[in-house]
């Protein structure tokens, strides 16, 4: 990855304008058209009606039952065999959860589940890095619904994660300042809503190519106020709705590797999209990807940003930008 170019946008209004030959959705008047084709976590291309009515009954069911989300703990004592944590304190106190170690929560996206690739790779990266509690959240009940319903239900699912983390803290005594959430695609907005539930007290949130369709003006999207430090890595973004991600800045720091859209070695939108968690996992291991702040569109397009530098990703809970 020596040739990786990273554009770093820090709380600025600058928009990176790029052109991509692979489109995840058609656009009209700068927005997604009603019928879009969006790939899920497993790369399956699904036709989506972005103006369809969400299944409100299912969303109410999710909101009433936060325990329907599943939480699986991995530690160095059980790196591949998960222990399920629930709202029953005994499930936590009898597990390998170490209150003296930092906690990382990995969250999948649309049509994903606990065993989706982003969860496996991120889990392995942290456990190889050090002594962590890695919790994989499974919200597949909602994630397996149509896209519009999944989007509408994310505040309830994210709120449920926030409630679980609060219960975890009450049970073990861990501080929110020791917790790092990493969410992929729609999962980025899930972790944002968990942060909202906890009034922004979590140490860190990393949004991995946050999903774009129906999120540009959505007040429930990932936001810099959702944690003490919020970072996003955009790898399949576009100013005009082309791509699974989007160009909107959401954190204290937003990284746009290779301009945020076309990634080396990729020929599909899903490949570009997945690069976010692949790069993040690599940065946890090596902490080797560095971006420089850009002060203008010209600097971005000419690859000559000269502002302050900041490492992208990594596992540092004290990281700020």
CATH homologous superfamily heading: Alpha/Beta hydrolase fold, catalytic domain
The name of the CATH topology is Rossmann fold
Instruction: Tell me what portion of residues adopts beta-strand conformation.
Output: 15-25%
Number of helices: 8
The tally of strands reads: 15
* H/E topology pattern: EEEEEHEEHEHEHHEHEEEHEHE
- The CATH first-level class comes to Alpha Beta
Name the overall outline.
globular
Spatial strand order of the main sheet = 7-6-9-8-10-11-12-13-1-14-15
Distance N to C terminus:
23 Å
Overall pLDDT score: 87
Evaluate the radius of gyration.
Answer: 18 Å
CATH arch. level architecture: 3-Layer(aba) Sandwich
Largest sheet: 11 strands, mixed
What's the number of structural domains? 1
Helical content, roughly? 25-40%
Helix/strand structural class: alpha/beta
Catalogue the unreliable spans: 9-30
What does this molecule look like?
This protein has 321 residues and is α/β, with parallel strands linked by helices. It has a single domain, classed as Alpha/Beta hydrolase fold, catalytic domain (Rossmann fold, 3-Layer(aba) Sandwich), CATH 3.40.50. 29% of the residues lie in helices and 22% in strands. The protein has eight helices and 15 strands. The chain has an eleven-stranded mixed β-sheet with strand order 7-6-9-8-10-11-12-13-1-14-15, sandwiched between helices. Strands 2-3 form a two-stranded antiparallel sheet. A hairpin with a 2-residue loop joins strand 2 and strand 3. Helix 1 runs parallel beside helix 5, helix 3 runs parallel beside helix 7 and helix 5 packs across helix 6. The chain starts with 5 loop residues before the first strand and ends in a 10-residue tail after the last strand. About 7% of the residues have low confidence. Keywords: Secreted. It comes from Bicyclus anynana (Squinting bush brown butterfly). InterPro entries: AB_hydrolase_fold, Lipase, Lipase_N, TAG_lipase. Belongs to the AB hydrolase superfamily. Lipase family. This is Pancreatic lipase-related protein 2.
